[in-house]
């Protein structure tokens, strides 16, 4: 059974990578933790109450928040982590593909926040942690669509932080650098691949195989989330 001393936390995308490590770290820190995956059954760290939910789906998100509130009565910490990437030249992805990526990375957090806010406002306290990326601050070539999605969540979060302070709710951005997770394998591949980018792809593949791009462990990002969750006066950005 979860401990309840630190409050109730909800982490989207807790089946893998940063979300998994964050859910585990929050549990360890004494939160009662709910996590999500699109899969049924939803699997995550032992002790985390996993729920099946898709952040692209209004009804699914409404069900998720309704379930957590019915069971736990409140949400003290909401971690919007679920996200996907696409690597490739800008004209290799259709606008429809960019929209599909934004549907997860930008409109996903918006859906979850909209659903959770009435209860959080009523509580008069709470923290929202949005997992952005270093590419939300420093755009990089062959990542234009992903970088745009993370810049969007940066602007949304900063605006929201000002909007919600008066209600005792703070919004925080986490901006991880490359982190060793299944992110690359789980991401989209360009739906209109062009031969001129074949060498870019081959190079990325070679770097990955040689471990040159091996980044930090997701547990390090999880500790940053925990720090942001616990800070009496949080910063807006944690890089
Ligand atoms: P993973 O692919 O390991 O994990 C992604 C998680 O998101 C999974 O639990 C997956 O759950 C969930 N997810 C994906 N799509 C949806 C959806 N539509 N609805 C609900 N859940 C979904 O990636 P990471 O842990 O690396 O990424 C987590 C976050 O960190 C993302 O926002 C990413 O942009 C960000 N980030 C990652 C970096 C990295 O280098 N890895 C660097 C900077 C930021 P399931 O498949 O079970 O549904």
Automatic annotation (TrEMBL):
Belongs to the short-chain dehydrogenases/reductases (SDR) family. It holds the Pfam family adh_short. Keywords: Oxidoreductase, Plasmid. It comes from the Bacteria. This is Short chain dehydrogenase. SMART domains: PKS_KR. InterPro entries: KR_dom (IPR057326), NAD(P)-bd_dom_sf (IPR036291), SDR_fam (IPR002347), SDR_oxidoreductase (IPR051911). The gene is vdlC.
